[in-house]
Amino acid sequence: MIRKAAGDLTTAKYVIALTGAGISVESGIPPFRGKDGIWEKIDPMEYAHIDAFMSDPGKVWDVLIRGMKDVVDQALPNDAHKGLARLEELGIIKTIITQNVDGLHQAAGSTDVIEFHGNFAWQSCLDCGRRCPTRTVEMDRLPPRCACGGILRPECVFFGEQIPPRHLSRSQLLAMQCDIMLVIGTSATVQPAATIPIISKQSGARVIEINTEPTPLTHSVSDYLIAGRAGEMMHRIVTEVERKKRQG
Ligand code: OAD
Questions:
Q1: Which helix (H) or strand (E) holds 112?
Q2: Do 113 and 168 fall within a single domain?
Q3: Half-sphere exposure (CA, 13 Å, Cβ side) for 88?
Q4: Is 81 a catalytic residue?
Q5: Of all atoms in ligand 1, which is nearest to the CA of residue 229?
Q6: Is residue 60 located within the same domain as residue 94?
Q7: Strands 152-156 vs 206-211: parallel, antiparallel or unpaired
Q8: What strands, in cross-sheet order, belong to the sheet with 206-211?
Q9: 33 lines ligand 1 (CB under 6 A)
Q10: Half-sphere exposure (Cβ direction) of 104: Cα atoms closer than 13 Å
Q11: Rounded CA separation 37/51 (Å)
């Protein structure tokens, strides 16, 4: 499977990746669903819906955002993020569409990353709109406030909010254009992101999944699943791609 994926990637003309929380698990960031998943411990409708945030921002900061800030501040890219960046360097990957808000693809060196669900690196003020980096936010009083007194919110998409339209339309277009869609570490259960690989498949692309578990895409949309941890599998795939490139 590793050799097959390396062969497919080496001969492809236009590769796009869709990534989810599973790609950052080896960087110490917990996923949302499954073992150790955040949504197994707290109810997303109570803590990750925009209505929940607007009605009690202090509670959402305390239970969800504070914990995210702690793990994201510490996290470093793993071999899967680095492998995707290397595939871009080799001219194979064009764009990454990520549902993650941790910024680890850019930290690994990927230059064209569509942050489908926004990013956690920035906060904006609900009153004046001023932006500030999340790492500079003082956490001694929650919710944290802007100099104007307004409440800060992360620039992430909460449940109940729309995907930024430019991100959605560009992702759908790329999904139609690519000849390989590499789907890494997503449960493929949250819309509209979960539709992206389906668009690729319907447009004639090959869909390759890397995941520790099968997903709803596995026996219907994906051409094949590489079962394993993203970092380890990507390291092996990229090593094989590099070997093939050296051999010409
Ligand atoms: P999930 O937490 O739903 O799924 C994580 C996926 O990664 C699962 O399919 C796991 O089997 C897989 N996985 C876990 N560890 C892995 C590893 N080391 N290597 C490879 N795969 C691994 O995360 P997403 O699909 O990204 O949205 O979730 C989508 C959206 O739901 C998130 O962006 C977030 C969430 O609610 C919002 O907050 C709007």
A1: none
A2: yes
A3: 19
A4: no
A5: 19
A6: no
A7: unpaired
A8: 113-115, 93-98, 15-19, 180-184, 206-211, 224-227
A9: yes
A10: 31
A11: 22
Distance CA 116, CA 75 (A): 20
Q: Could you say which residues of the chain have pLDDT below 70?
A: none
Establish whether the linkage from the previous residue to 192 is cis, with ω within 30° of 0: yes
The pLDDT value given to residue 103:
98
* Contact between 21 and 100 (Cβ < 8 Å): yes
Same domain, 68 and 144: yes
Atom of ligand 1 nearest to the CA of 187: 9
Q: Taking the model in full, what pTM does it have? A: 0.97
Ligand 1 centroid–CA 19 distance in Å is 8
Say yes or no: 94 and 211 in one domain.
Answer: yes
Atom number in ligand 1 closest to CA 39: 36
Nearest CA to ligand 1 atom 36: 32
In short, whether 215's Cβ falls inside 6 Å of ligand 1 is: yes
Residues 152 and 50 in one domain: yes
215: CATH? 3.40.50.1220
Check 81, 105, 117, 235 and give the catalytic one. 117
For position 244, what pLDDT does the model report?
95
* Ligand 1 contact via 104 beta carbon (within 6 Å): no
3-state DSSP percent of the chain in helix, strand and coil, to 5: 45, 20, 35
Structural domain total, the chain? 2
Q: How far apart are CA 149 and CA 216, in angstroms?
A: 45
Domain containing residue 15: 1-29+77-117+163-248
